[in-house]
């Protein structure tokens, strides 16, 4: 059994990006600039955005954090996005989700210019991804592909079962694992809350990608021997015995499932760190696009 160590791989990627940024600086070129918009003060969102800003600093990117109050109107946020779209200094930006309920998330994601959409959520970029065209792949699926590739996990001809159909992970993963090339060329079954016989379907999978958000949903008896297990779930489970008052777990009953798996991602330390590394990689790509246009 091999642990797919997202922490190690993400550090490798950050080191590679930092080396590229050093070359840019040596040539007197502009370094990539990533901006993040945070509306409100959701605890998890503050943690994520803080982590993204620190990662930018580590690799030598410029970063801007725009914090807006919880009472921000949809119009005010759309105006801010328009400013960022037109600001030539910024290569890419993200709007941290979830947004307060007075704001239509879809409208906001549509307002981000596709060339600056380093989250890969804009329909233009999603469509290009589905058509195998060069584009920004959403950071979490991009991170999963990178883990699979760097560990040389065989995907061709395999049966991949994706659990969960969100636009952020489940649906893009189902498209990417079925595309031509590596990682890809697998036969994909997309399962979700309405799937009948889900346990039976999972038991036939060579690769399981779980993005359900249900703690320890995937049990050892549900997976076959030597299956590849990718756990995207991350849930805070209250626990008074812990210092923070909670512990973090994934969708997979890790201790038992790892005894049967050939490869498995831990939580934390698996897919999570990869997401930020790939956001940085997308920002690098955005800068290249930006330069080729100017």
Keywords:
single chain; 294 residues; alpha/beta; Rossmann fold; 3-stranded parallel β-sheet; globular
Describe the overall structure.
Helix content is 40%, strand content 16%. It has helices spanning 6-26, 43-59, 74-86, 105-111, 123-130, 139-150, 170-176, 198-203, 254-257, 271-293, and strands at residues 2-3, 33-39, 62-68, 92-95, 159-163, 187-191, 207-210, 228-231, 235-238, 246-249, 263-264. Helix 1 (6-26) runs parallel beside helix 10 and helix 6 packs across helix 10 (271-293). The radius of gyration is 19 Å and the shape is globular. It is α/β, with parallel strands linked by helices. The mean pLDDT is 95. It has two domains: 26-113, Rossmann fold, CATH 3.40.50.10860; 139-272, Rossmann fold (3-Layer(aba) Sandwich).
Give me the count of strands.
11
How many structural domains?
2
Radius of gyration, CA atoms, in whole angstroms: 19 Å
User: SSE order in H/E notation?
Assistant: EHEHEHEHHHEHEHEEEEHEH
Sum this structure up briefly.
The chain has 294 residues and is of the alpha/beta class.
Layout of secondary structure:
Elements: E1 2-3, H1 6-26, E2 33-39, H2 43-59, E3 62-68, H3 74-86, E4 92-95, H4 105-111, H5 123-130, H6 139-150, E5 159-163, H7 170-176, E6 187-191, H8 198-203, E7 207-210, E8 228-231, E9 235-238, E10 246-249, H9 254-257, E11 263-264, H10 271-293
Parallel strand pairs: 1-11, 2-3, 2-4, 5-6, 5-7, 7-8, 8-11
Antiparallel strand pairs: 9-10
């Amino acid at each position: 059994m091999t642990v797919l160590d997202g922490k190690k791989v993400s550090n490798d990627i950050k080191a590679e990006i930092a080396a590229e940024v050093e070359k840019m600086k040596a040539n007197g070129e502009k370094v990539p600039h990533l901006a993040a918009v945070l509306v409100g003060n959701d605890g998890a969102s503050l943690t994520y955005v803080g982590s993204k800003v620190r990662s930018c600093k580590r690799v030598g990117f410029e970063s801007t954090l725009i914090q807006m109050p919880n009472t921000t109107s949809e119009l005010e946020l759309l105006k801010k996005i328009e400013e960022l779209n037109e600001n030539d200094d910024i290569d890419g930006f993200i709007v941290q989700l979830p947004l307060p309920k007075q704001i239509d998330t879809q409208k906001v994601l549509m307002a981000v210019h596709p060339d600056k959409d380093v989250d890969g959520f804009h329909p233009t970029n999603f469509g290009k991804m589905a058509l195998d065209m060069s584009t920004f792949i959403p950071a979490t699926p991009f991170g999963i592909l990178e883990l699979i590739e760097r560990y040389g996990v065989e995907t061709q001809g395999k049966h991949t079962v994706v659990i969960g159909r969100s636009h952020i992970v489940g649906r893009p993963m189902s498209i990417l694992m079925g595309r031509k090339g590596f990682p890809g060329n697998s036969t994909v079954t997309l399962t979700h809350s309405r799937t009948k016989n889900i346990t039976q379907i999972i038991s036939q999978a060579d690769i399981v990608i779980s993005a359900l958000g249900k703690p320890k949903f995937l049990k050892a008896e549900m997976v076959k021997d030597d299956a590849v297990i990718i756990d995207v779930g991350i849930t805070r489970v209250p626990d008074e015995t812990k210092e923070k008052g909670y512990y973090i777990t994934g969708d997979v009953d890790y201790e038992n499932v790892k005894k049967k798996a050939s490869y498995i991602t831990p939580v934390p330390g698996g897919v999570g760190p990869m997401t930020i590394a790939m956001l940085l990689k997308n920002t690098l790509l955005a800068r290249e696009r930006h330069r080729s246009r100017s």
